[in-house]
TrEMBL record:
It comes from the Bacteria. One of its GO terms (cellular component) is plasma membrane. The chain crosses the membrane at residues 276-297, 328-354, 374-396, 417-441, 453-483, 504-524, 731-756, 779-802, 822-842. Residues 283-403, 735-852 form the ABC3 transporter permease C-terminal domain. This is FtsX-like permease family protein. Its main location: membrane.
Length: 859
């Protein structure tokens, strides 16, 4: 009998190919995203691992600083001074005692290199570094970097070698002259001649390395008393672990690693980033699968309802309840299997497409062959099959419980009475969810963002339970407003939409969830953009703002010197980042070079806004939290030794761009070595009567040699920040498009099955005079009402969640207030109505083709 039931299931699927295709498509869309995410990250991880396998080859032990330094050091590469020369000398002197056979020192730092067109080489986030050239025979890896035939090693301050992949990307060759900017505190742009190209093992697309002779590298990347790191080769009979242990005992203040540990550290760092990226992709895949779950559930519920007489006949000829259940679940298994296999193939294509997209944008990520390991295959198949079978479980159980004789009757109930219990559950969940949102928004208790998140989950569950009950009054009201112009057709569409509230709610929920997330993201984006615009307008006086557009986003201090010489410039105030310790705890803030009160608006609470060299200005929020009251002396401890006492001379009202504190330039210089000093923004004031546009052009010309300087007006700066947020929103909306596409397919699927279910009803309407175009119009209106119901529910809940979530950010972003994206909401509701009509095109045409006599005769 089991084989017979399986044959019946397979033949049923084969007999309804279109229905099968629509259901499979819901599975495909969800699983392809899962597969694509896992395959992409596996491929990237494999490519990066191949690169890092070439790092520190031949190195038995490496010595490097334990931690980074000031934020300003981010511009200088590592943000550390490095390893003192005294350590190198000690190792050289005690080679035999330590078990060292070779010592290799490295000088390195961040740098920007111009391409053949004079523009900065875009690495897409990959490192762009300068270093000292170490021939393979002088290093620890005999198979290390080599000069490509036709070139030679650098010799002198104006010669350099460049890695092959970067040279190809930049259009540079042996003999080319190009401009470089070393990201150090005293850097000035200078020209070099490329005298050779480097063949570096594991050379990756986007990675840029320019090497100089050791004397030049020492001058460019060191303060003269430190090296970036020290690599050691162990003497014969001494293992890497033994050498590491000896070096650790001798130099406990430094990070000591074996070559294997260096490679693994690099791999772990990249894999950690890829894991986060993977989680983001999988989160959107999960959203798609959740939406798909409701579509699959709805589909199987309708299929079972349409086949109830067929299933009853099977019961009458001896099929047991379990066999009926298993039969439906077997169909779900087949649908899940087919959808998962197709999803896996499409997912591989998505991974390839994502690779190519990132490559075309200059992301700097390495390219490599596609890696389809067991994890993506197992995950894709498991997720697709399990989700489909779980979705079909309830309809399958419901089908098996119908008695054969009762199922053969014409009239069947829709179970609306049972809505009372689920509506009550939904109401309780909604009350709890709203309470948590309100508590989180007020910042009461611990973890307000977590409270809002939990409240959001409860609200989503409340919608699942209460949406059927909500659909009747809401769609009834929408029908009175939107369907009234269509007369009897509108009334019929309104009645059909609320006739089966469970089906309507399940169909609409897919759209509700997707658009709820759109509303949350839209509210967050609008709020952040409004806050930035307000902060720039209120906090900044300077009409021109200069920033760095490179990977570090910082500027050498020498940039401000060139800006100050431009005709029409009155003053330049440079802002530096400070990372120090106070009472043993890490603190971060800013240090202006120049009179910040002339370029920014301080709303003083007490004291003065004139900052002396050893002074400290603090926001009122920081003063309350840390007890840094007016007149108190705060002692800052630098990461590289030394300390700087600073007296609080003024307390100002907390502001987004001025928080948390401003340290005097004299104190900053005591904490930060010259090589690690950098500005992250220059605020430019103009002389009276100066032409702002002319001065802006003059600054652009004066700083062009620095390659990565961006000169903007206040409005342009605010717009550029908003543009960054818009780019993020576009990506998020695009990824949510998966869920919305599944939702639209769900509407198509539900309406198509509904047309089959209502074949006799439609035939009767045609028989009494309804025209084909009227049938189509009725289906269109029905779909539009369901779509708007789902969209309206999603928008209301999404805006509420987004509004409360924004309120939780007030602790770390001063001045942020919720901003409702009315334009997005209006556009979304109109788009939902349009999508509803488009989704109904094919079902409407199919319904209009129903032949009255055949439909009425179909008993």
């Amino acid at each position: 009998m089991a084989n017979t039931m399986r044959k019946v299931s397979l033949r049923n699927l084969a007999a309804h190919k279109l229905r099968l295709a629509l259901t499979v498509l819901s599975v495909v869309l969800g699983t392809s995203f899962v597969a694509g995410s896992l395959i992409f990250t596996s491929t990237m991880s494999n490519s990066f691992n191949g690169i890092f396998d070439q790092v520190a080859v031949g190195v038995d032990t490496q010595i490097s600083p334990k931690s980074g330094g000031n934020e300003g050091g981010g511009f200088g590469g590592s943000g550390t001074l490095g390893v003192p020369n005294s350590v190198v000398r000690t190792i050289e002197q005690d080679k035999a005692q330590l078990g060292v056979v070779k010592v290799v020192t490295a000088y390195s730092g961040g740098m920007t290199i111009a391409d053949a067109k004079g523009k900065a080489i875009q690495t897409g986030g990959a490192p762009s570094v300068g270093a000292n050239w170490v021939p393979a025979e002088q290093g620890l890896d005999p198979n290390g970097a080599k000069i490509v035939p036709g070139g030679r090693a650098p010799n002198g301050p104006n010669e350099a070698v460049l890695n092959e992949s970067a040279a190809k990307k930049a259009g540079l060759a042996v003999g080319s002259r190009t401009k470089v900017v070393v990201n150090s505190g005293t850097a000035k742009p200078f020209e070099v001649t490329v005298v050779g190209l480097m063949d570096i093992p594991g050379d990756a697309s986007g990675y840029t390395e320019m090497d100089f002779d050791t004397a030049t590298a020492r001058t460019l990347f060191s303060d003269g008393s430190h090296v970036a790191n020290v690599q050691l080769g162990a003497a014969q009979g001494v293992s890497a672990d033994q050498l590491k242990q000896r070096i650790e005992q001798r130099f406990p203040a430094y990070k000591v690693q074996t070559g294997d540990e260096v490679r693994q550290e690099n791999k772990d760092a990249v894999n950690s980033f890829l894991q986060i990226f993977n989680y983001i992709l999988l989160a959107f895949a999960a959203i798609g699968l959740i939406v798909g779950t409701f579509i699959i559930y709805n589909t199987f519920s309708m299929i079972v309802a349409q086949r109830v007489r067929e299933l009853a006949l099977l019961r009458a000829i001896g099929a047991a309840r379990k066999q009926i259940t298993r039969s439906v679940l077997f169909e779900a298994f087949v649908v899940g299997l087919i959808g998962s296999v197709i999803g896996l193939v499409i997912g591989a294509g998505l991974a390839i497409g994502l690779q190519q997209l990132l490559a075309s944008t200059g992301s700097g990520l390495p390219s490599g062959g596609l890696v389809v390991g067991p994890t993506p295959i197992i995950a894709c198949l498991a997720v697709g099959i399990i989700v489909t079978m779980v979705s079909a479980w309830a309809p399958a159980r419901r089908a098996s419980k119908v008695a054969p004789v009762e199922a053969m009757r014409e009239s069947q109930t829709d179970g609306s009475a049972s809505l009372k219990v689920r509506t009550l559950i939904g109401a309780v969940l909604a009350v709890l969810g709203v309470a948590l949102l309100v508590i989180g928004a007020q910042g009461k208790g611990g973890g307000p963002a977590g409270q809002v998140g939990l409240g959001a989950v409860l609200l989503i569950l409340a919608v699942v339970f209460a949406a059927p009950a909500l659909s009747r009054p809401v769609i009834g009201l929408l029908g009175l407003v939107l369907a009234r112009p269509f007369g009897k057709l509108g009334q019929l569409a309104r009645t059909n939409s609320i006739r089966n509230p469970r089906r309507t709610a399940a169909t609409a929920f897919a759209l509700t969830l997707g658009l709820m997330l759109v509303a949350v993201i839209g509210t967050l984006g609008s709020s952040f953009k409004a806050t930035i615009d307000k902060a720039v307008s209120n906090d900044v006086k300077a009409p021109i703002i200069v920033t760095g557009s490179g990977g570090s986003g910082a500027l050498p201090p020498t940039v401000s010197d060139d800006i100050a010489k431009v005709d029409g410039v009155s003053s330049v105030v440079s802002i530096r980042g400070v990372n120090a310790k106070v009472d043993g705890k890490d603190v971060t803030g800013n240090s202006p070079r120049g009179d910040l009160s002339s370029a920014a608006n301080f709303h003083l609470v007490s004291g003065t806004d004139k900052l002396p060299a050893d002074g400290l200005l603090v926001s009122d929020k920081t003063a309350r939290e840390k007890g840094w009251t007016l007149g108190k002396t705060v002692t800052f401890e630098g990461k590289f030794g030394g300390s700087a006492p600073a007296k609080v001379v003024g307390v100002y009202k907390s502001a987004a761009l001025l928080d948390p504190w401003q340290l005097g330039s004299g104190a900053y210089e005591k904490l930060t070595p010259p090589r690690l000093r950098a500005d992250f923004v220059d605020l430019v004031q103009l002389k009276d009567g100066a032409d702002s546009s002319a001065v802006q052009t003059g600054i652009e010309d004066a700083t062009a040699d620095f390659l990565t300087v961006k000169v903007q007006t206040r409005a342009e700066f605010a717009n550029s920040q908003a543009a960054t947020i818009n780019q993020m929103l576009t990506v998020l909306y695009g990824m949510l498009g998966l869920a919305l596409l599944i939702a639209i397919l769900g509407i198509i699927n539900t309406l198509a099955l509904s047309v089959v279910e209502r074949k006799r009803e439609i035939g009767m309407l045609r028989a009494v005079g309804m025209l084909r175009k009227q049938v189509r119009r009725t289906i269109y209106l029905e779909s539009m009402l369901i779509s708007i119901f789902g969209a309206l529910l999603g928008m209301v809940i999404g805006v509420a969640i987004g509004w409360c979530l924004v309120r939780t950010f007030r602790e770390w972003l001063t001045g942020i207030q919720p901003e409702i994206p009315w334009g997005t909401i209006a556009f979304t509701l109109v788009a939902a109505a349009v999508c509803g009509v488009l989704a109904a095109l094919w079902p409407g045409i199919r319904a209009a083709r129903t032949k009255p006599l055949e439909a009425i005769a179909d008993l």
